[in-house]
Amino acid sequence: MVEISEAPPGDAPPLGRPLLGKTVAVVHAAWHSCGSYQVNVSQIAAYRALGARVLSIAMMDDIGAPPLKGGRWPSYVAATQGVGADRRFYSGAPVSALAGRLLIDGWWRLIHGDQASWLVELAKRAPLPEGFADESVDLIHANHYFTLPFVETLKQGRRIPVLLETQDIQARQYALRNKGGFFIPPYATYDDMLKIELDWMRRADLCVHLNEEEDRDFRRLLPEARHRLIYPAVPEAPRARGRDIIIVASDNYANYLSLRWFLENVAPRAAGAKVAIYGNVDGGVKRRDPALYESHRPLFKGRVEDIGAVYANAGCVLLPTVEGHGLSIKAVEALSCGAPLVATPLAFRGMNIEPAALSNVALAGDAAQFAQYWQEAQARADRGETPPLASDTRRLYEEAFSPQAYARTLAAALDTITA
To answer: In whole angstroms, what is the distance from residue 30 CA to residue 10 CA?
Structure first.
């Protein structure tokens, strides 16, 4: 669970409790073991630090069994015990929805690659969670445009301010995923899916964006909407004091492409360098490229219960990012541990910083340079060197990405819609 201290870093003012007596519903996809889940945990912690009573409302992004009675629900609940909300609710489109218009309105478009419409149609069919009608909600913090049809159900006709946290332009993510999928023509285009996304975003009272690129693009695409850039709060990893060289990655298509580049282009050039790869990206590599997985099987450690222990034992974190949109949560997590980083420039996408100016970051422009910096990190580990307690990346994390920084900026943004 994320905790927010009343003692902020540096000279920042204390948080205060402006939401005391208010109830905030945080609506999010029923995801775990990924950056978005960590963002949701931090949102809940921030609202509680500001004095609110917080409800977590998880929406499944697929048809399936009723909440908690099968399908992906048991694994989701087991992996999210630390979500930190005062009360939890669950919903998702039931299998019976296939007997209605979902096949026409959603599935038929999905087989052409239109993931934007599919998720909207699922959200429209997610029922009001049991017991939620008894709640009096003062603010809804929705994550991703596709939860907004479900938000309409939650509002039950009431006037409740809605803050939408976009977490990247989703149409970009869909277009990237479609490259690795199997769909039939005519294919849904990026513009097709973006239009659906923007149409739903217009219903929010405030659109919050997590990175510089996303904020700039949405301001241009939706000039009539209210926007605010708020970097996400990422739970801090333990300070790195070890010698291990690590990669941490979840299973998404961009991470798979980045890891494939690393294994095929960097690893052969880095003789003698070691790395351990943590996270469920192992399953994505095995599924998409079994031969690549088998040839590097010893490097993959899979998902671990205590990722904090992995960071605590790190002497260097590798960020071989060559694909992806939006701010990288794993990159921010790496910043927080304070370890030396070997990274590509894309790992710092969406951050208004110059990574080359950070003294403990080795920025690699190509595979050969990445391999060289990795070997140098291995040499430091072999000499027994461990990261210093203070570092530029740790200071950057505290100033821009800590829970305290997020809560203060969020409180200021709420003044525009709750006054």
So the answer is: 35
Mean pLDDT, the chain, whole residue set? 93
> CB-based burial of residue 11 (10 Å sphere; 0-12 exposed, 13-18 middle, 19+ buried)?
exposed
Q: Measured between alpha carbons, how far is 358 from 41 in angstroms, rounded to an integer? A: 28
pLDDT of the residue at 121: 95
| DSSP symbols for 167-184 | -S-HHHHHHHHHTTS---
Q: Is the pLDDT of residue 5 over 80?
A: no
Of the listed ranges 184-198, 268-282, 369-383, the least confidently predicted one is: 184-198
φ and ψ at residue 132, rounded to 5 degrees: -70, -30
- Which DSSP category does 225 fall into? S
3-state DSSP assignment of residue 220: helix
Neighbours of 415 (CB within 10 A): 9
H or E segment and range at residue 276 = strand 276-278
Q: pLDDT tier at 100 (50, 70, 90 boundaries)? A: confident
Residue 13 has pLDDT above 90, yes or no: no
In order of their start, the domains of the chain are 23-233+403-418 (3.40.50.2000), 244-399 (3.40.50.2000)
Cα separation, 316 vs 380, in Å, equals 9
* DSSP notation for 43-93: HHHHHHHTT-EEEEEEE-SS-BSSTTSSTTHHHHHHHTTT---SEEEEE--
Question: Looking at this protein, which amino acid is placed at residue 415?
Answer: D
Q: Give tens-digit pLDDT for 308-335.
A: 999 999 999 999 999 987 788 899 999 9
Contact residues for 239 (Cβ-Cβ < 8 A; gap 6+): 312, 337, 338, 387, 389, 394
